[in-house]
Amino acid sequence: MHQVTLAGLTVDTRHYIGGQRVASDDTFESVSPIDGQVLAHVARGGSAEVDQAVAAARAAFPGWRDLGAEGRREILHRLADLVERDLEGLANLETLDNGSLLRSHRRGVMPRVAMNIRFFADWAMNKLDHPVWQTRGHDNVVTWDPSGVAVIITPWNAPLMLATWRIGPALAAGDTVVLKPAEWTPLTASVFADLCERAGMPAGVFNVVQGYGTEAGAALVAHPGVARIAFTGSVPTAKAIMRSAADNLTPVSFELGGKSPFIVTDDADLDLAVDIAIEQYDNAGQVCLSGTRLLVHENIADAFAKRFAERAAQIVQGDPRDEATQIGPQIHRVHLDRVTGFVERARAEGAQVAFGGGPNDELGGLYFRPTLIADAKPGSEILTAEVFGPVLAMQTFASDDDAVELANNTEFGLAAVVVCGDRERAERLTKNLVAGTIWVNCFFVRDLAAPFGGSKKSGIGREGGTWSFDFYADVKNTVYAPTGWKD
Ligand code: NAD
């Protein structure tokens, strides 16, 4: 009753707390965006389960801390091996639950899950040595001490990948973890908990509380026993979390939404620009980093728009399990309606729909057609708010200074893409762009050692490499005097 078999995997629908499966009186449905099938009835946690999970994680903390980076690395490497062993099942399960492309899960996303675990386990072993420096003959010795229980709250657009991007460094740093996955995509987190157990992770080191954000999530971020809150999601939720965290002064790491600019200069390789622009529809536009504002130099705007429309017309939309599919469904009916609402309001305000513009009637279900909006009013909603669907808007600019001004004219600062034919010109452009990550003549190149995060309302803090450990650990400086030592 508490288990379902999906994609060849046994999925337990209960919480995972202190190494035990724990049920709740209530459940919620996990529904597949592919065909509306109810996949599972999942335990709906609240403050009682949260109290239990935080207590279990606190109890497990001293043992996990004292294992040291080397002992933890051994277990984390076994966990990464198990993710790789079950990669096919995990990829299929994630596709059933969130509707993203199966081939992306197989080839990119799930291998990254394993890498998120392995990479940070290794980093904790090798890369955290800070050179000792002296102050008037005294040694400064810096250490990254485990800080306690890290709460990790994640969205639905890349569930296990985004969860392990936080879980990997938190566990490697010696923290214990309570994860609350998004209620629209709860399933792979549960399988991951089984893999942690199989890898020999002590009970209570990793816990999963399932449930709604306003119930389980809100209880977790208000809990006084929590040392760190890592949240990936929307700006309104981040504000609520920060208010709650303020009562306990719990440090937060936020990775939030975006409305990233995609700048094409008049000396750009147009084929390259169109290729990269098409990628902004990936994952049916449900990507925080997407360059959704196409800012194109006026000299090449017509040529770009023509080629872009031709390429967009060839995009194959359909079942995300088919190898040929490039764009799958939106995650949920509520979200599809939200995306539709943005486009309808843009139209009502006088913007032109160059192509797309609504749900794909041939496919039915939750499919929204790749869409381009043109001639939107400056400052209008479609140019400023995050749609989080396959909806791009195009504007033109006359000079590079105009491009930078347009690009920065948003409350977000997550990412930016620049396609440009001249390196020095690109460097001048990127210098004044406000964004956590900028890609020049490329997109989505991510190195786990590089800092990642958002400026302005796109986030607080950076993770990746040592930046992750700076957040999950208590960074400590111990000063040793040259005097006072016996012999
Ligand atoms: P969301 O904010 O609605 O939900 C995210 C998570 O927060 C879910 O697990 C939800 O249950 C939980 N939550 C909701 N209310 C809560 C509360 N009051 N207290 C505690 N937890 C609560 O976001 P979403 O719709 O799931 O995800 C889409 C958003 O995530 C977009 O804005 C997108 O840009 C952003 N995102 C950002 C990144 C990044 O790296 N910057 C990556 C992926 C997605």
From TrEMBL:
The active site is at E255. This is 5-carboxymethyl-2-hydroxymuconic-semialdehyde dehydrogenase. It comes from the Bacteria. Keywords: Oxidoreductase. Belongs to the aldehyde dehydrogenase family. GO terms for molecular function: oxidoreductase activity, acting on the aldehyde or oxo group of donors, NAD or NADP as acceptor. It comes from Microcella alkaliphila. Residues 25-477 form the Aldehyde dehydrogenase domain. InterPro entries: Ald_DH/histidinol_DH, Ald_DH_C, Ald_DH_CS_GLU, Ald_DH_N, Aldehyde_DH_dom. The lineage of its organism: Bacteria, Bacillati, Actinomycetota, Actinomycetes, Micrococcales.
